[in-house]
Amino acid sequence: MRHYSDANCTTPTTVATIPNGQTDIDYYVKPLTGGASTQIATASFGSTQRQFPAVIGAVRRGTCNFAGPINLADGGQTVDTGAFCTITPPHQSMGKTALFFQATTSSGSGGTAGVRCRLTATNQVGCIRVDGQSGGVVAWQTVELPTALRVERVSGSCQPPPFNITLPAAVSPSSSFLLKSFNTSSGDIDDEDLFTTQLTSGTNIIGDLGDDATMCSGSSFEVQAVELQGLTVTRGTFDAGLPSGESIALVTALPAASLNTAVLTQHRVPNLNPALSCSVFVRADLPSASSIGFSRNLGMDGGCVDPPIYQLIWERLDFGTRGNVQAKTVTLPIGTSTLAVPISPVDITRTIVFASSQAASGQSCGETNYAGGTSYLGEGNARFELTTSTNVQVSRQRNGGVGVFTFFVVELDP
User: Fold this and answer.
1) What are phi and psi of 333, to 5 degrees?
2) Hey, where are the domains in the chain?
3) Among 41, 120, 358, 391, which is disulfide-ready with 363 (CB 3.0 to 4.6 Å)?
4) Average pLDDT, whole number, for the chain?
């Protein structure tokens, strides 16, 4: 907790003075960490302490599962298309709660691997997919702040792209970013699976995917516009994308950001047959305070990057004094599905973890050199779970190729 002399918590103090003629004085505390707290007051003549009741942390987290298909005696099969995760304790307000998630599966079907998640109630995260050819795991995190955080969310059915999505109420673009997810009935993972969103005003988002003629019948989206006071957002598009044969790109000459900065990127691809994991997944990172880098196929040019990557869309999130950010880039070799990544100690009750790319199934994606005949999202997307104050577990559900992921550990200052 932090201590203040005023009810608005603007003037920090470590001393409370009781004037002559008074028996008491008020001071104010602002909780930072979830859980119980003991506050000790010391004077020249002695000391006393008070046990504060348990404080609910700003961040909740958990996992839930999609079951795999079950063969029935009559020759039929059951498929699991919904995973519903319980939030304990419940949130106070959905309008002040943002949802981050990563969903992984071993399937190469877009209808199975493409997962859309939303906050369905103050105590539930609901995740939907169109098909269920294999099981899957959803790792979710929610962050709620009673002040300074506001979330406008909208969901709907995809229209022929590009199309406009209108927010229920306006947000401030300079301090707001987008979190999106999408599900589809596609049989593979290419143009109709990598849905992009771009905030163009306080109330308007442009949704787009694939080639101009791409139709998205049977697909649904979920978008959150998250506004956080103290956050500085720089956004843009890299219209050149990644041409055929090229694997890396760099955006330069941006206004310098602080060390407490993260990035979220999205991209579109053409209709690919076959679609290859090494060609369609793009990782973003921050090589300097004024640049953003993009990479696919581990940065190697060649045949696996023959199809182009269409327009790259990015948002750079400078938390400044609002949060402490640790950036990590890790490599999972062939045959490796899980990796424990050490981090500097954080307060887990106010820390979120997410990847630099939200191409599909949440904020989960990196890049891979897997060049099998099918595009498997599970080669290039992962779950990032904060298991202790000093460890993040990175988990993917396919390991036929190398996977490289950039992720950010953001410890918020409530």
Assistant:
1) -65, 170
2) 2-55, 59-412
3) 358
4) 93
